[in-house]
Amino acid sequence: MLRYLMASFLFLLLLQSCSSNEKRLASSIYEIRDNDRSFLKEIHETDRLQTAPADYEPVKDELIKKWTYASPNESGEEVTGVAHALDTDDKVIALTFDACGNESGDGYDEELIEFLIEEEIPATLFINARWIDEHHDTFHDLANHELFAIENHGTEHLPLFVQQATVWGIEGTNHVSDVIDEVMINQQKIERLTGEPPQYFRSGTAHYDDIAVQVVNDLGLNVVNFDILGDAGATYSKTEVEHSLLQAEPGSIALLHMNKPESETAEGVKRAIPQLQENGYNFVHLDDYPLLTY
């Protein structure tokens, strides 16, 4: 190990002595590292944050003061302020795919993504922090592909509440502080890795209360759900996925999953897309149109 470090150090000195300026040296080092998959893995390993970074603590403190004593009036998927469709009469559909991670599924449906690429179908990918940690190279590739917009699917894949509640056996956040961390730890992870902050957030289970939604808005993100349940957590058969997608209307947002390759989601999508195109539909990103909210 010491011999390797010394060799690397001498190599960098050699580059520096041969370079006419420091900027060129920095560029060379970046190119070497960018091609080194083990280096990328090391970066991702050190990026597994367990606590909130200090740079949003002042905002967190202010939002805790603002919302701690507020009582929610609504909870569920169809909560005031949650977007469920694009506000347009154009024949467009926003396909969104969740990647949840851990016990919620940490696989990668390569068949599905390859189909979207081959057919040049744009899609929005809501990525959870745990999935990023398990698929650092794949995340890097997806984030750099022009067809895909990367958005925030939370840090621990939790329902978003300011009071204690459970959805499908998953205990949600139960304080304003927890809501902020669930959003912002992954928000800053994605921004560090891609250079772009996500604009949209979807919680684990897509359940919220109305106070949590307002907290997310105060953090600068829009909460986005769906009007087409595309695969019901990747449990639908290919026929059910196909049927669900064919119910789309102008401006629909479809929710599907890209983290369960053993499912029939890919086959259902491959069946439905050509039919939707024949019916005059195009596929868009969320930011191509205004959002329609509850």
UniProtKB/TrEMBL annotation:
Keywords: Signal. InterPro entries: Glyco_hydro/deAcase_b/a-brl (IPR011330), NODB_dom (IPR002509), Polysacc_deacetylase_ArnD (IPR050248). Gene3D superfamilies: Glycoside hydrolase/deacetylase. Residues 1-22 form the signal peptide. GO terms for molecular function: hydrolase activity, acting on carbon-nitrogen (but not peptide) bonds. GO terms for biological process: carbohydrate metabolic process. Residues 91-284 form the NodB homology domain. The keyword Phosphoprotein does not apply. PANTHER family: GLYCOSYL TRANSFERASE-RELATED, SECRETED PROTEIN. This is Peptidoglycan/xylan/chitin deacetylase (PgdA/CDA1 family). The lineage of its organism: Bacteria, Bacillati, Bacillota, Bacilli, Bacillales.
